[in-house]
Amino acid sequence: MKKYIKLIYILFIVITMVMISSQVYAAQCPVCNGTGHPPGSSGVKCPRCNGTGTIAISEHTAGEIIDEAGTFIQKGESGAEGKISQSDLQDLSNTIYNILLVVGIVVAVIAGLIMGIKFIMGGIEEKAEIKNMLIPYIIGCIVVFGAFTIWKIVVELLQSM
Ligand SMILES: [Zn+2]
Description:
161 residues; mainly alpha; two-stranded antiparallel sheet; binds zinc ion
């Protein structure tokens, strides 16, 4: 039984690591929205992602996020109708998505690591406690990352309409 729990835990860490490497290091390019071409052109390579459609989230700097939010607010305040274009909304949606995804992953990884360390180092009582927390933790992760997946699917469906 103990071996079984440990195996699940190791498996979960591996899955989390794979998720981090695929999601964090391959975020959708905010310039071309993952198409690889700047908006409105099809033959030109996107200068930001070099035509790959993906960038590392770490490339998406804090300054850039503030700039995007600032431009968005400015356009809203100027009041002129239609000034907030669809691509601005998409950019903002992508930015918020990426920030929340990183926060979600960081929280899940830290919680998982704390549980893992407690499980390995702790006494019998603590081990029993961690075992009870494991299922709610996994369900929580599925709900949170499932919500992200649904968000992504909805956004992509709306974009293709
Ligand atoms: Zn791009």
